[in-house]
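Give me the fold.
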Amino acid sequence: MGLNGMIGKTAVKDSGVGDSKRPHDLATATTEKLQAFRLLDDRTAKQIIVEVGEVKQSIKFRMIEGDLMELYKTFIITYHVDTNGEDNLITWTLEYEKLEELGPHPGTLLNYFLHVIEDIEAHHLNQA
C-alpha cells in the first residue's frame, strides 16, 4: 500500500502558539479537547520524538503504540512553524501507511490538530 500523506495549514498571529517550550499551555488553552494531555475520549497514544528542529521550529513524532497503530502500520506527525514578521503559518503533516487498504484516512485527526491550534491562539490572544 505504501506511505501516504496529508498536510493541513493554519495561519495565526500569536507566535506563542508554536512555542514548544510551553507545552503546559495546551491543557489550559484547549480545555474542550485536552485534559492534562489526555484525549477526552480516552484514546491513547505512545510516540517517540524523531527530530526537533530548533531553527526550523519543527518537531516530528513517530507513533509506536496506541489506537492509531491498530489502523496504521506507520504513523508520523510533523509540526512546523513558518514565521514571517507577525504572521505565522503552522503546518501539520501526517505520514501514514494503512494496515488495510479500505482503512480510514486520518483527516479527522488532522482537523483536530488544526482546531487545537485555533483554540490555543484564541486563548493567547484573550490573555493579551
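The chain has one domain: 4-127.
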